[in-house]
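Bench notes, afternoon.
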Amino acid sequence: MITHEENKHAKNKQAKIKQQGFTLVEVLMVVVIISVLAMIAIPKISSSSEGARKNADIATAHQVKTALDRYQVENGIYPIAKEFSASNGTVTAAKFIPKYITKLDARTTQQETDDAQKGFGVAALGKDGLIPASSTPSNLIMIYLSADGSGAEVRAYNSKLDEVLWTSSN
């Protein structure tokens, strides 16, 4: 026979077991808190990764300009525009690549944009050594070269190609 004391002990044990779980309200509160934190954190993470991609393209543009300057120091002039060709974001230049820079292809750039705009483009500087006002960028990183080897400029653009992120002319 079960004594009153044993019965009381069994009920206390059952009550403790029931108290070990979470109520539906507690679970919903945790879900709401996690959702709010996610709404705050995800945009910050997203914007910081876009900034990192822009900075990576700016660093790449710096490297291209450094390579062009090294070419100029060794040869007395910059490479001329007709020695460079660009197709699908990849630049070929027999006297420049791979001696001064390893490669210039579409996979090198980091920003999210249309495939046709990734990578590198090449355009001519005007006779005055400046980028013509009518010139529109075709790729994230543009290399501007003079026809006579007297000048070179490199620009990194944003993913919409409507803002210069960095230019070597500064």
